[in-house]
Every structure is written in structure tokens, then in C-alpha cells.
Amino acid sequence: MILNPFIKPRFNGTQMVMIDVIIALLPLVFVGWLAYGGVLIQLIGIAVLSALLADFLFSSLLLKRFTSVLDGSAIVTALLLVFTVSPITPWYVVAFGAFSAILFGKVLWGGLGKNRFNPALVGREFMSVFFASIMTSPNIWKFKDLIQTPNSNFFKGLEDGFLSDYFSSVLFQTKGAMGEYSIVCIALGGLYLLLRNRISWHIPFSLLATFTLLNWLVGDIGLSYSMGGILLGTIFMATDMPSSPTTKNGKIYYGLMIGVATFAFLKGGIRYEYMSYSILLMNGFSDQVSLVFKPNAWGVVGDWKGRLEAVFMLSLKIGCAILAVLSLYYYDLIHFLVFIYIVYVVLKFNYSFSNKVNNVV
């Protein structure tokens, strides 16, 4: 039976999509609780409450939408935000990050589905800029005293000690941000989303393949990164539907360039924000990627020469943007991007709002 366009399928609405993402994140909640107990639950509760409050207030006041808080996106944003921080991040910093993620990452863009950048990463960068002394302090990653379940060797039967330690760390380890403790659980969440058709394989595959290939060709000597953090960003943030391309080829290219940017940022000395910067940078090029890789109309012969030229020029732009971010980071000017972003989003919202008022149908 073919449904008409105005009939919405029962199990593919926004709420069901968000519920599936929350289900996919539950293994990470369990692992975080196993490691830190009530600390994780407390931060999740604070982030969720702050995000829901911001969503209700600003969606009601600015967008006149009083039920948007029920779509579940605020909860997903809060969870993802918490998974990018240390367990000893102060509660008020987490609350500020969740509040900023909803206001500047969702509402001021016009609401759910209209955001250009991933809201959770927007909130994460706001925390890094407005609480720089806390978020950039080496002490924020010293939390061994909080660990309730220490790392264990789950594969003692293996003769090879290296393999035993490696497999154990893939299953459970307590280093880094709170969403990085189990590569297996992140992968399980990604597999669930793939099976539920909430994400496609194109972005994760091209991103991870590109990053792995560059590591193999150039070498990862001296690079300090978390595979759990890269996998978390790949599955749950790079695949964010509103801020990623819509076409299959566009998604492959998009993931490829995130992999290139991630490797370049690591090589350039960016230690903690490499994945966040990479995804946010490519969020900004998402519409251009979709345009360059849009399918040909039926019956129209494709202009491959023109397509290759467009891809080359787009890659050149992205390369320049990567170098610009590295330069700003080197000279400690990266925070100005957040200030520019705030001004841009506010002006864009005011312009859109004025147009709606002045062009009433």
C-alpha cells in the first residue's frame, strides 16, 4: 500500500527517531554508571533539565511552539553533551552548555530540523570558550578517585598480553570523556541505529576508512587521540540529519572530509577538540556538499567534467578552512569564532522573524 504524502507513518515520526537514539545511547549510560555511579546520573539529570527548560522557554517565547519540548531532541542533545565532558566537570558548566546547545544550536535556527550545526557540539564549544579556565585545565581529566569500577582484564586466558589488554580496553576503560569508555557499546548503538534505518553507513564508513588510511600512509607517531571519542562523534554526531548532506555520494564525501580534517587537526596539535572542530567545520559546508553531489534529473546526461571541477573547488575551500582553524588555534584566537557565530545566529533569527512579520500571508 502506498501512502499519500500527507499521511505520516506511525513509527517514523520525530519522537520515535529520538527514542531510538536514546535507546542506542543507553549502553553508554550503563557503562558510565558502572564507572562513576551517581556522578554520571547527576550530570545527565542536570543537562536534561537545563535543555528541557531552555527548549520550553525559548521555543515558546521566540517560536511560539509550546510543545516542541516533547519531541525528545533536547534529551538527546543533553545526553550527547554529557558524553563529551569529564566526570568532574562542574554542574553549572554542564547546565550552561545544555542551555546554550538548545538556544544557539536549535531554537535560533528556527527549531528542530533547521539547525546548520550539531547542537551538542555547539554547546560543547560554548563551554570551552566561556569556561576556558575550567575546560582547558589538565586537572579536569584527573578523576581516578571517582572511579567505582576500575579497568579489568576480561581476557586473562589469552597468551598474548598485548591482545588481552587491547580487547579489555575496547570493552571497558575509564579514560577520557564519559562517552568514550566502551568502543563495543558505541558500536552496538551504531548498529542499532543502522538496523532501525536512523542513520546510513555512508558517513561512518568513509570517515573511519579515511582516518585509518591516513594513519597508515602518514603514520600516527606522536598523535594523541581517543578511538572511542572518534567513534562517538562519527556515529552520533556526524550523522545528525539536519546538519549533514542528504545524498549518498554527498555523505561519502562529507565523511571523507571529516576524516581528513580530524587527521589534520591532530597533526596540527589540537589535542581535545579535534573531532568537534572537524564535524562543526563540515556542518558549515553541508549544504554545498549536497548541492555539488545532487543527483542528475532523469534523462539528463551528467556533466562529469563540471562535477569534478566543483568537487575540486569545494575541497579547496574546505582545505583553506582547515588551515584557518589551525591558524586560529595556534594563535589562541579560536574563541572569536564562537563570538562571530553568536552574532550571526542572532542576526539571522531577527532577519527571519522580521520577514515573517512583514510578509504575513
Automatic annotation (TrEMBL):
Q: Which UniProt keywords apply?
A: Flavoprotein, FMN, Membrane, Phosphoprotein, Translocase, Transmembrane, Transmembrane helix, Transport
Name its GO BP terms in alphabetical order.
transmembrane transport
Q: Which domain of life is it from?
A: Bacteria
Q: Is the Transmembrane keyword given for this protein?
A: yes
Tell me if Protease is a UniProt keyword of this record.
Answer: no
Q: Where are the transmembrane segments?
A: 12-33, 39-59, 66-85, 91-109, 121-141, 178-195, 207-232, 252-270, 310-330, 336-353
Q: Which InterPro entries match?
A: NqrB/RnfD
Provide the Gene Ontology terms for cellular component.
Answer: plasma membrane
Looking up PANTHER family in the UniProt record yields: ELECTRON TRANSPORT COMPLEX PROTEIN RNFD, ION-TRANSLOCATING OXIDOREDUCTASE COMPLEX SUBUNIT D
Q: What is the name of this protein?
A: Electron transport complex protein RnfD
